Amino acid sequence: MQQLIRGRVLDFHADPQDTDDNHRFWDDGAVLITDGIITACGDHGDLTRQGAIPAGVAEVDHRPHLIMAGFIDTHIHFPQVQVVASWGAQLLDWLNDYTFPEEARYARQGHAPVMAEAFLDLLNAHGTTTAVAFCSVHKQSADALFTAAHARNMAMVAGKVMMDRNAPPEVLDTPRQGYDDSRALIAEWHGKGRQRYAITPRFAITSSPEQLELAGQLATEHPDCHIQTHLSENRAEINFTLSLYPKARDYLDIYDTYGLLGPRTLLGHSIHLEPREIARMAETGSRAVFCPTSNLFLGSGLFDAGGLRDAGVVQGIATDIGGGTSYSMLATLAEGYKILQLQDQRLHPLAAFHWATRGNAIALGMEDRIGTLAPGSDADLVVLDPRATPAMALRMDRVETLAQELFVLQIMGDDRAIAQTYVAGRAMKATDG
Ligand code: GUN
Ligand code: ZN
């Protein structure tokens, strides 16, 4: 099946922070999709002259809207859809008072499949086409999410959380159960269609040394799986963690001890880091994941993107629903901009949109399949309308450059600015705004 998607097309091929030659933009652009894969991308007139566009191909014209690679969310909690906007707590109380009780509901038969559809609908409505998700401790929560994502041919990286202490019994496994369930999920889902498994020890507070040992064993047995966890989000968390692992040099050293660091490892938050930890993250290639709306909402602290970048740490950016407050990667980039402002750092709009697409794909090591419009990539696209609201339309009347237009989307945009989302070539929104 072939289709042509027309619009104003933006595609990144390098990081705007590294080079000025970082993107291509076609005011009358087109993306040719063949069986869910991008087979051509460029100026519509050029593609026509080259004979690249088959006669009679089905065509959707989104002009004047902006087409780019779909957004990638590198840290989000599937069972926290109904935790967002829980009042008045910082991390550890927020987990105990709101989050663990909510995640306990995912033990109930039939709950996770319903919530998985709602979760993926929300992601697609906000222009997100791939997510890296924490599920609950219950194996069936991960089964439900993978089943729903596979049915819509949507690339997911996900795992059931391993947690065996410091939480209510309804959300605890044991080292052996956590290992066995994770292994069974890997066998069933890792590499099935577009699904990939992330070994997911929640964080050191909720995993005993025995559990981290088995998580490390899983990682050794499945080196192409991702690993995701949390690191240095909040001062009280760090103090509690270090009291539980008194032999560790610092927080990162705990994960290091159990063989959990490397280029496939995603360390959510990574805020209050020691210089040694930053150097070790760079040395091992471990990724830091910036979660701006969550860090502000939970009062966790300010992520030092510039410092980590100077040290050579590869970084993702993510919503962290439900500590985060918006599913929108646009809103996430807006809050990221403000957090960096507070540290006298500048997030340029081109760098911001690169980060939410190709940058996050690089953080996942998946840039050969997602994050750009290069032929051979999966046809995951977002179509953006920078005039989606009256306020945005008025602001757009003063816009003269692509960078300015992107910045209006970044600062004022949300799901209303998502005109359409394509997952493997399939339109996911019922109406095309
Ligand atoms: N640390 C351990 N679990 C969580 C979680 O669910 N959300 C956040 N923000 N931090 C965590
Ligand atoms: Zn998280």
UniProtKB/TrEMBL annotation:
Q: Which GO terms describe its molecular function?
A: guanine deaminase activity
* Manner of cofactor binding, per the entry note: Binds 1 zinc ion per subunit.
Q: Which domain of life is it from?
A: Bacteria
The cofactor named in the record is: Zn(2+)
Q: In which pathway does it act?
A: Purine metabolism; guanine degradation; xanthine from guanine: step 1/1
Enzyme Commission number: 3.5.4.3
Broad class of enzyme this protein falls into: hydrolase
Q: Which family does it belong to?
A: Belongs to the metallo-dependent hydrolases superfamily. ATZ/TRZ family.
Task: Give a short account of what the protein does.
Answer: Catalyzes the hydrolytic deamination of guanine, producing xanthine and ammonia.
Name of the protein this chain belongs to = Guanine deaminase
Q: Which organism is it from?
A: Paracoccus nototheniae
Organism lineage string? Bacteria, Pseudomonadati, Pseudomonadota, Alphaproteobacteria, Rhodobacterales
